[in-house]
Each structure stands twice: as structure tokens, then as C-alpha cells.
Design brief:
The structure is a homodimer of 398-residue chains.
Chain A lengths: L4 H5 L9 H9 L3 E4 L11 H8 L15 H15 L8 E5 H13 L5 E5 L5 H8 L3 E5 L12 H5 L6 E7 L11 H14 L2 E5 L25 E6 H4 L7 E6 L2 H13 L5 H11 L4 H23 L13 E5 L5 H10 L6 E4 L1 E2 L13 E5 L4 H20 L2
Parallel strand pairs in A: 1-10, 3-4, 3-5, 5-6, 6-7
Antiparallel strand pairs in A: 2-8, 7-8, 9-12, 11-12
Helix pairs in contact in A: 3-11, 4-11, 5-6, 5-10, 12-14
Chain lengths: 398, 398
């Protein structure tokens, strides 16, 4: 008996790799500040729980495969009112988190031997979805010195060949927080259009932009409506990661018809969770303002703390709730392990996500880390101080 | 831009194919009895809703990727007490329905060009999961005349070649309701063992056996623990299809480690739904007895009604809540469409799932149907009478 070549090419999540060391550290009495996982501590709107409490049907039945009509309508309304994009009902499929939307997309457009262009560092689970579809990632390289910007026409076009099927982006970016300017979005849309490529844009962090920008979407370019596939999710927008409600959006009717086959095969997405998310789409617009302000303050704390550490390279990111930085250490995986096994300050330590797992190119990102600024300001500041103390102690050892 | 070859090989669900005609029939004022989809009308245990109402955390967080520990423990306890199989925590992964367990399994064990042996007729979504993994189905043929029995060593072994990776079964069967005898289970386990094949057994209908048998599982054969992969689900067991909670079980540690990669990539399964299902695993054992009795009565009604229709070929199935039958009509897809567009009796008609979609072999199953006996006895009887009247009228037309 042998395992598939695709699963053998896949890897474990770099965010979860140090979990056993964390368990041991906690067992030894250490308190750990978690900047390694994008699990916000912001309360889920009570409306979600109320909707679930009020669910009054005696049988918890399958939802329709494309999603419950109320949620599809709520998503369409949000895009119309908040993003300025007009979608029809059939342009929207509800999925089990943004993750399933990504997985369905890869299975619809990628075959064995195909390539997809993705700027690196990128969200590591893209690897699994692309590999499971038999394809591989062609990374657009970036550097911490210019804030991981990737919107460079020449660089991107140089990667296109006969095997290229799509360009995939996260905007605002995870793990970098990099936000595309409108002209950059237009330029990338042009590349996709000129080369006949799908343009898969993961916009789950859309609300989290801190430069006063209007909310924007790649779906607003009508001339690339056939190319564009959006990944969206309720997880971050409403701090409801555990609801596992994502959205797959495209105005390419043939694509959506193919995607529906996978939605039918897995029958439905959880009924109660869809009901909960409908209620959150009814929240007043100032809900987003409040959470944006909160995250902006946290970003500012994290950035200031990074800049105070000698030798760190980090530009101030414009969005999402992640930051990537180059540290003055030899290997951030070794450093993370050491922080859990050998370091503490007043019984406390911290976790980040080591950078290498966010790169497709072997050897890259070894002295980089990603942090998620998802903790309250005081906790975040303490975690960053522990990072600074840790770097000092790590480099002073021996 | 082109779509993947795999999605082009996939098809829509045969259970959902006639949905547009059903919508039109309802709009025209017809009442439709649905025997086409396995959505039971039995109430979901109130404990599930109570557990969700009592969920008291302010943030709806990601669950751990393998599933919440309480649910994993509940599943292990159920296998120990009800099925007599000892499982360790790491033998169990919680999935988004049995569907995701199937999809993960196919991605772990199948590559482009591989083959998997499955008795036909089979659950049509197996097609999508196998195709998405790049592989193809080698069907074991059966006939309605002997109740779709497939446990024939010679027949199965004749299909094994260098590309064969696994044998996949649904036991009790969907769409046939066929239940393997203990000796048949042992024989199939032997084939898997002797030929070094994975044995994927979908046992989501385990509780629904009507011959007084003890609950059984392919997982009880210790000597094929490395070969065996179980698919399980809360959907049918607790009449909670909309919760989308499945289980992937194997004592093959390497397989489970690979499967965990996919679980990590999609982050987690819905938190509230896992919580709801934990509470249902605490139900007293007579819960299963009551629902088994109810389904047995329904099976007896459906079988009796089938036998009263001249020309129908159907054996009495031993389990699940499906029955497959050969009808005296030319084409059951055409007949289904006609039942929705041209037939009614006192303003009523009925739906089944046409047989062809359950076969891999082209042309097979055209005069067969699957029914799901998921309605109350009176409704079921009426639906079967409508089927009888429909056959008569359909064959008498022109």
C-alpha cells in the first residue's frame, strides 16, 4: 500500500508545527503569548449566538448545496452596499470556510503539471490546495526591505509559461499585511487579461485596511469578470473563525457551474453556522469601523516594538492583522523552539510563525517570522517585549 | 482559460438533477413526495440544540484541526461500547461530514491513473471524490435479481491489477440497502490483505440494520487494521444531516498523519456543530433502538408496496434507508421528468433518484431507481401508490 504522491508533497502547517513544544512549556508552568495563529480575541457579535439559539426547526436538515438563500442574499447585499460590486445569486457559493473555496477553485482550474503564480511569502495552506490538485506554485519573489511588495509587471510576466493557469493573491496580504494600491490591482488584472489567466484573489481581510482607503475588490473590474475568482470568509470579518463559513464568488458562469459539482458532492455547509452568519451581515456599518480602529492600534504597537529591536527589518504593513519581519537570528525555527524550551521571563514566553514555511523557494525566510497582532494591546506589547528579550538572550548564549 | 480535466469528468448529483422540474411542479400547485434524497424527517435529538444554546464562550474560535477533544473521546467511547472496537485518540479525525472524510481519503491514497474497486450501483458522490483525486472507479457488477449482492471473491479479484489501490464499500449499502454478512466482511478483508489494498468502508448507516444483527464494523478485524479506513458520520445516526460532522477513522498511523495535513490545511470543522454532536453521543442506547424500529417499519411498507407493482424487481434490503428496484419502464430519467411535468393524482406526485447516476458502467441502471424511505409511514405509502399509478399511466400513454 502506498500513499498518493500529492499528499507526500504536502506538509504540516508551520503555524502548528511547534504545538508539542508549546504543550510541554505550558505543562512546565510557562505562560505563552500566541502571536503564531490568526485567532482574534475580539468577541463574536452576540447576534450570531442569538440566531443559533432561536433556530426553531425540529430537524437539523441539509442546507441547499450552494448555501442557504438568506446568506447568499446577505453576501450580495454586502458587496453591493459596502464594496460597490453587483453580484447575482448564481455568482455566489457558500463554502466550509475560505479554505473550501480555495480547495474547490484549485480543483476546478488546475491539473497535474499546471502552474499557479503566487507572490511569496504566502499563506502556507495554498501549498496543500495546489499540490492536492496536482499543480505547483511559481513564486514571485519579494524582500522584507521593501515591505514584501510584489506588484511588478516584469517580474510577474517573466514567470508566465505554457503551464501557467492562474495568478493567486491575498489582498490585504497574509502573512505580510501588504495592501495593493488601486493602480497595482489594475495592472495585475491587465496581466491576467492579456495572458488569459484566472485571477484568484483571497480578500478575506478586506475590512482590515488602515490607510483610510475605501473597501475595494478585484471583482470591481468588469473587463476581467471572466478571469476573476474571489475567496471570501466570515471568519475574520466577524471574528467568527469557528463558524467555518466562506464564500466563493465569480461572474464566470462556467466556472461557477463546475464549482457547483464539488458543492453538490459534499452536499451542504453547516446549517446552524450559515444561519448565524446571516445575522452578522445585518450588523450596522460601524461594526467594521470599530474593529478596524482596534486592529490599527494593535498594528501600531507591534510595528513600534519591532522597530525598537536592533537589527529587525520590517516595513509598516497597510492591512490584514499580520506582519512579517526579518530578525537578527540565525534560524527562526531553532529560535522558536529555544523560546519554548530554554527561555522565559517571569515565567512567560511567546510564539510566532517561523518564516520558512511561508516560502516555496527552499532556504528563503529562515531569518523571518510572521506575527498575528490578534491580542489586546497590553498582551501584544508584552509578547513583543518577550520577543526582544528572547532575541537578546538567544544571541548572547554560549 | 481552461478548466481542469478532473472537474470536466465530474458530474452533477443525480439526486439533485430534477430540482428545476420540481420547482416548476410546485409552482404549478403540485405536492411532491420526496423519496429522492436521504433527508430523514425524524427529529434531531433536542440535546443537540440545547448544547448549542448553552455555548457560553464570547469568541467563536477555531476548533483544533483534528476535532475537539470531547468529540474525539465520545466517538472512541461509542466504538468501544457499541461496536466493540478499541480506538486511540489519534485513530480519529473529525471531518466536515462523511463527505470530507471521503475526499481526504481519496487524496491520501489515489494518484492520477490509479484505480479503486467499488461495487455498482454506488453512492454517486464517490465519483467526484475519486475523479478529483485523478483516479477512476472499477465497478463490481451486481443485479437487482439477487439484491445487488457483490461479495464474490472471484468477481472482485478479477478486477485487481497494478493500478488498483483500494476497495471501497458502503455497508449497509447506499443506494441498495444491502448488508454484508460477517463471513462476507471477512472474505473482503482477506482480499484487501492478500493483495495489499486499502479497504475504505463507509459505515454511516451502521445503526440501520433490521435483521437483529449486532452492530458490526470492518474495523473489528485486527489483522487488516493497516488496510482499513472507516468513514463515519453523525448525519444519519442522529438525524442531524445539517450539522456536517463526519469522522475519519484508521489504525494505520501513517495514513492518519497524512490525513492530518489536509485537516490542518482547512484549519477546523465548525465548533458549534461539534459541540452539538458531543451531546448526542451521550444519548441512551435505546435512542438507536427506537429509530431502528421506525425505519424497519418504513422499509417493510416500501418493500410491500414495491412487490405489489407488477413487473418490479426488488429484493428486501437488510439495512440503511434506501432501496433500489428495477421498474417496468423504458427510462427512469424520462419517467421522473414525466412524473413532474405530466402526471398527478389529486394534485400530487413523487420523486425518486433515477438509477443510471449510481452506475459507472454506461447504460446500466436506466430502468432502475433508488428510493429513500425517510418519510412517515402514511406519506411513504402514498408516495409508493403514486409511483404505482405513475408507472401505469406512463406505460398506458400514447
Amino acid at each position: 500500500m502506498k500513499f498518493s504522491s500529492k499528499v507526500q508533497r504536502c506538509d504540516y502547517s508551520p503555524m502548528r508545527k511547534f504545538h508539542p513544544f508549546a504543550v510541554a512549556a505550558r505543562a512546565a508552568g510557562k505562560k505563552i503569548y500566541h502571536l503564531n495563529i490568526g485567532q482574534p480575541d475580539i468577541a463574536t457579535p452576540p447576534a450570531a449566538f442569538a440566531a443559533v439559539r432561536d433556530f426553531a426547526l425540529p430537524v437539523l436538515e441539509y442546507a441547499p448545496s450552494p448555501g442557504i438563500p438568506e446568506l447568499i442574499a446577505a453576501v450580495a447585499k454586502y458587496y453591493r452596499n459596502n464594496v460597490g460590486v453587483a453580484l447575482q445569486e448564481e455568482d455566489i457559493l457558500i463554502t466550509a470556510g475560505g479554505s473550501e473555496a480555495l480547495s474547490i477553485t484549485c480543483n476546478c482550474i488546475l491539473d497535474d503539471g499546471d502552474e499557479i503564480i503566487i507572490p511569496e511569502p504566502f499563506y502556507p495552506n495554498y501549498n496543500t490546495f495546489v499540490q492536492a490538485a496536482g499543480a505547483s506554485i511559481r513564486p514571485v519573489d519579494t524582500t522584507p526591505h521593501d515591505g514584501y511588495r510584489y506588484a511588478d509587471r516584469e517580474k510577474i510576466e517573466a514567470l508566465i509559461n505554457d503551464h501557467t493557469r492562474a495568478i493567486m493573491l491575498t489582498n490585504p496580504g497574509n502573512p505580510t499585511g501588504t495592501v495593493l494600491a488601486p493602480a497595482e490591482m489594475r495592472m495585475i488584472a491587465d496581466i491576467a487579461k492579456e495572458h488569459g489567466l484566472f485571477l484568484v484573489v483571497d480578500e478575506v481581510y478586506r475590512e482590515f485596511v488602515y490607510g483610510g482607503e475605501e473597501l475595494s475588490s478585484m471583482a470591481s473590474f468588469d473587463d476581467v469578470a471572466e478571469n476573476t475568482i474571489l475567496i471570501d470568509s466570515a471568519s475574520k470579518r466577524f471574528s467568527a473563525c469557528g463558524a467555518r463559513i466562506g464564500v466563493l464568488i465569480s461572474r464566470n458562469k462556467a466556472f461557477m457551474q463546475h464549482a457547483l459539482k464539488f458543492c453538490q458532492a459534499r452536499l451542504a455547509v453547516a446549517t446552524l453556522d450559515q444561519t448565524a452568519v446571516v445575522s452578522m451581515y445585518d450588523l450596522p456599518a460601524d461594526y467594521f469601523l470599530a474593529s478596524r480602529e482596534e486592529y490599527k492600534r494593535r498594528r501600531d504597537v507591534a510595528y513600534r516594538k519591532f522597530k525598537e529591536i536592533p537589527g529587525v527589518v520590517c516595513e509598516c504593513p497597510g492591512g490584514a492583522f499580520y506582519m512579517m519581519a526579518k530578525l537578527p537570528v540565525d534560524d527562526t525555527e531553532r529560535f522558536q523552539e529555544w523560546l519554548l524550551t530554554d527561555f522565559e521571563d517571569k515565567g512567560e514566553t511567546m510564539m510566532f510563525a517561523p518564516g520558512a514555511g511561508f516560502y516555496a523557494t527552499p532556504g528563503k525566510g529562515r531569518d523571518e517570522i510572521r506575527i498575528a497582532y490578534v491580542l489586546k494591546e497590553a498582551d501584544l506589547a508584552r509578547a513583543m517585549d518577550l520577543l526582544a528579550l528572547g532575541i537578546q538572550a538567544y544571541n548572547a548564549r554560549r
